[in-house]
Structure formats: structure tokens, C-alpha cells
Write a structure and sequence with these properties.
By secondary structure, the chain is an all-alpha fold. Helix content is about 75%, strand content about 0%. Helix 2 packs antiparallel against helix 10 and helix 7 packs antiparallel against helix 8.
Amino acid sequence: MVGRAAREGARTGSRGGTGREVVARCGLVARGVLYVLIGVLAIRVAFGAGGQEADRSGALQELAEKPLGGFLVWAVGIGFVCMMLWRLSEAVFGAAGPDGDKASKRLAAAARTVFYGVVAFSVLSFAAGSGGGRSSDEQSRDVTSKVMDLPGGPWWVGAAGAAIAVGGIVIAVQAARRSFRKQLAMDRMPDGARKAVEFLGVTGGMARGALFAAAGAFIVYAAVRYDPSQAKGVDDTLRAFAQTPAGPWLLVLIAAGLVLFGLFSWALACWRRV
């Protein structure tokens, strides 16, 4: 048993070399920045003071208006390139942990590689002033409209929306079950930090999952109605929470959760096993 554990530890350690650690932690910091800014913008929307979209483009515009804003936007873009490279390394070489070589893990890492590649391209385009500033709502409607025009388009749109919605539910359930604890180096964390990070992971993960699930549901609805205008990006999805019987307070709850998820991403940058 000791020999087996040693071999497993060596195998895991070889996956988590210095290069992978650097890109992973830089990527998590960048992700945290965007989620914190989107959450803050959404809180402003809830209280009627939101002049910008509560999505990636709005967050980048907010960041660009700060001192050294141009530098910060470039830094976030490079951070998402790092995030993409980290996920690519997991798809090719396997993730950290005893089950990191599973085909399902590699496939999930490949999907994340594509996702973060798109995000990185969008952020860097914004930084270079050559695009990337379109709102998530416009992008969602445009992509939905183009796919709708393909043979079997509504089915493809519905399947994509269902996948996003199910993914959101999975994210929320995993957060509630504290599945993220397996990814943390708990032995390196102070006792007080463990409880704080668990709180951030649960509340932030559930809010993020709710956002994805709602966005996916709107895409499915657009497919059923054969109406691309029903598809919503992050901003419109967040605003939809304020139109529920709970009113703007549900939006405040989700927005605060997104801020907490951003803080959780920063905690992962410190203590995640990579």
C-alpha cells in the first residue's frame, strides 16, 4: 500500500510541475477578477444603478476605466490564455489526482480548453481594440440565429441549451456537496481558512450553477419557440432573476454569489492541487 501511494504521489506530482502550477494559478486569478466585477455590476443593476451590462464586456469596460486599466485588461486576457493552457495540459496529460487519467476527465478538460480559448480571444480582442466588446446578449442571439438556420438547427440549439442547463445543475449540486474539497490542499490551509473557503465554494458555486442553468433554459425556450431573440446572455439572464416574484432581491442574492465565486477562484489560486 505504501509503495502504491508513493507511485501515485509521484505520478500526481509529475502532472503538477512548476509550469502547470504557474499557468493554473494565473488563470484562476483572472477568472476571479471577471466574476467579482460581473457580480458587482449585477448588484448595481438590482438597485437601479447599472449603466453597463453585467457580463464579460461590461466587466472589461469597468476594468478599462480604472487607473492602469489597459494593462489590467491585457493581464486578464493573458490570465485566460493561462487558463486555457492549464486545461489543455489536463486534456493531454491528465489532471491531478488519482482519477485524473479517466477519459471523462480528459474530455471535460478538452471542453474547458475550448471555452477558455474563446474567452481569452474575446478579452484580448477587447484589449487590442479590435472587437470583443459586444455584449453576451448580442452574441447569444446571433449565434442562436445562425445555428437555427442550419439543417436541424432548433434541435442543435435545444441540445446545446439543455447541456448548459444540465451543466449548471451539476455545478450547483457539486458545490452543495462540497466536491471541491478534493481539489484543495487541505493540509496547507489554516483552520479558519478552511471554513471560509468552504463557504465561498458552496455559495459561489451554487450561484454560478443557477446562472448557467437559467441561461441554458432560455436557450432551450428559444429553440422550442423557434425565436432566437428568446436566447439570453449573462446580462439578460441576470436581469431575469429580478423579474421573478422575489423581485430584485433574488438578483442581489445571485450577484453576491458570483462575487463570492470570484473570491473562491482566488482561494483556489492559493490552495488548489494542480
